[in-house]
């Protein structure tokens, strides 16, 4: 039994699709690289941590290369400056006194979370699992 292939449309064949896609991707990469370089030159040196009034200020919060477009889909993400500072502060606290940090997190944070959840749900902290 011989199977016949459907005729390839002259409007869209594989070769034209691949060439068109390749050219589109290359053009986008060049455009984005040029924009990233321009933004790097125009970006404020040290935007205030809460100044989110422009993309340049938001972008300046991240310590990632302007040559790279991160498309990780939140798998592993770069953190903005305030988050990096909080992580650094937590890491220093762990280095300084790990037992106290764990003790505080083990008991203090759980109670705060239980209270917040209970308040949100309209229950009592002891009812939160």
Structure description:
The protein has a domain at 79-128. Helices cover 58% and strands 0% of the residues. The chain contains four helices and no strands. Helix 3 (81-96) packs across helix 4.
Overview in brief:
This protein is 58% helix and 0% strand. The protein has four helices and no strands.
Q: Count helical runs.
A: 4
Q: Approximately how much beta-strand content do the residues carry? A: under 5%
Briefly note the structural class of the backbone.
mainly alpha
N-to-C SSE series?
A: HHHH
Mean pLDDT across the residues is: 77
Shape: elongated
Rg on CA atoms, Å: 26 Å
Helix content: 55-70%
Low-confidence stretches: none
Oligomer: single chain
Number of strands: 0
Largest sheet: none
User: What is the distance, rounded to the nearest whole angstrom, between the alpha carbons of the first and last residues?
Assistant: 64 Å
Can you give keywords for this protein?
single chain; about 60% helix
Please write out the topology:
Elements: H1 14-42, H2 55-60, H3 81-96, H4 98-121
